[in-house]
Amino acid sequence: MTTTLAAPEHAQPAPEPVRKPRWVKPSVAALLLGTGLLYLWDLAKTGWANDFYAMAVQAGTWSWKALFFGSLDPGNVVTVDKPPFSLWMMGLSGRIFGFSSWSLLVPDALAGVASVGLLYLAVRRLSGPGAGLLAGALLALTPVAALMFRYDNPDAFLVLLLVAGAYCVVRALEHASTKWLLLAGVAIGFGFLDKMLQAFLVLPAFVLAYAVAAPTSLGRRFGQLLAAAGAVVVSAGWWILVVALWPAAARPYISGSTDNTVLELAFGYNGLGRIFGEGRGGSGGRTFTPPAGLELPAGVELPPGGRGFGGGFGGQTGLTRLFSGEFGGEASWLLPAAVLGLAAGLWFTRRAPRTDRTRAALLLWGGWLVVTALVFSYMSGIIHPYYTVALAPGIAATLGISVRELWRGRANLAARAVLAVLLAVTAVWSFLLLARTPGWQPWIRYALLVLAAAAVLGLLFGTDRLRRLGPVVAVLGLCGALLGTTSFTLATASSAHSGGTPSAGPPVASGRGFGRGPVGGFGTAQADAALVGLLKATTTKWAAAQSGAMQSAGLALASGRPVLAIGGFSGSDPAPTLERFRQYVADGDIHYYVAGGRGGFGGGRGTAGQIQAWVEANFAPRSVGGTTVYDLTKSIN
């Protein structure tokens, strides 16, 4: 592998040639246009995607306060269990264009296009346009990327902010720029406001790359990194400070926390609770009772009392997790090759100067890949396969850089041999992944093997003609390596997804349909037409109240009227209290209480259970479209 830096440490050369090859601009345009088409085409067929977040966006289009806090309803009773950055983006879109499925999802799709573009720019600055284009294409053609950039979960904007942070680190590396390093910290801070501690998984890689390769003294590097840490704290902490200083009685309850604070949510349920399991890290010892009629994924079993249910989503911990079950089809297609490419790149640059650009790029993106992969592999709490979208930029950039450098050094037998190994491993793993869905397009897995085999033979035995046959070998290799992941990506983009646990790939690849299709999985529910009509006719502050957001979200979205989700997402949060709920009823703020449904993990216990018991004791039930409804304007006492 060749390196691209031979200048003194304090005199970094220009990051790119003055004149770019003619093919660069049209290639970049094709990449961005193709990505936009992939992520934006027929976007509205997904509907509301995850009703849970769509409900909060809807509330944000009605109330600025709800938008700021990320409340589930415009009355600001309880928030979602995440910080609100992605809700701000989707809510602003809804306010500008009117709330609809399209305005909800377009910001996420545009975040995907921007992520691909920024990844290209970041990789290009240290490794050239060829590596940048390959990295951008690999990100765009990752199945889980096509899933989450067409969805309303927070992950789309998390990826954009992390890639933006990496781009800023790259710019800082060029001339030891404090300004760009501070901007990287700002990007990570806002990433925290999108998905809390998950945004910090890239920090070790950012620190390592800058500490090793920045062209300045060790003392200045250390001081700059401390300043960047301060930028992270400030850009993440301003919102936390505002929430902390806001009187608790005048703001919504922070869902998922045990003490109504953002910090407890960040380090408890969304922090240590995710890493060590539901019973630790401030989870409050909450238990899970499966909603009626919910079909769990194949192989998922609930431990006694429902503890640690989140681990069931992710299967067993260990290095094989990312290759097994639904995880395998989400983002692992190129993971083995990326790891091998990283190892080869670091070996070939082991004697390069400290500020070597290629090694710096590998430390940055490879560190992102390794740390994130290890955390995802061993975390014992709630983890969903679609979380692996945060791995995709690290995989794409690491592989783009290593393949470009190996191809540049293809006159060397060792470089060609490593390239051949990368290609062979990718083809074999893609074949095995596709074989998990034998009934879906079986020709693809055999075609990619033939293409990859031809490219491997060309690399290993076409030494004398490689200069002339180079473009043919490159095309064959790319087709063989990318046919599997591309086919899964296209199948993902062409399918409608819904619920809180969507899966990439064709429908047959999703096991027992958990979280796919028009109904199924957390965060999606179909509301009865008669019940929706009843709510549409209301004029009260809330048309209805219901335990948990899993079904109440569907009622709010279908009726276009505010619905109070008692207890937040799972029905387990103590908001509103029974006393507050009774006051709402006395003030005439809630017209109906909707019983039953799938909302509520609490199993009738806690605040939600107390409210339900009070309603049943004081109001008469009636059936509307098969659902039991209580008219809270007509007490029987």
TrEMBL record:
It comes from the Bacteria. One of its GO terms (molecular function) is pentosyltransferase activity. Residues 81-238 form the Glycosyltransferase RgtA/B/C/D-like domain. Keywords: Cell membrane, Glycosyltransferase, Membrane, Transferase, Transmembrane, Transmembrane helix. GO terms for cellular component: plasma membrane. One of its GO terms (biological process) is lipopolysaccharide biosynthetic process. It is found in: Cell membrane. Its main location: membrane. The keyword Transmembrane helix applies. Residues 537-618 form the Putative mannosyltransferase YkcA/B-like C-terminal domain. This is 4-amino-4-deoxy-L-arabinose transferase.
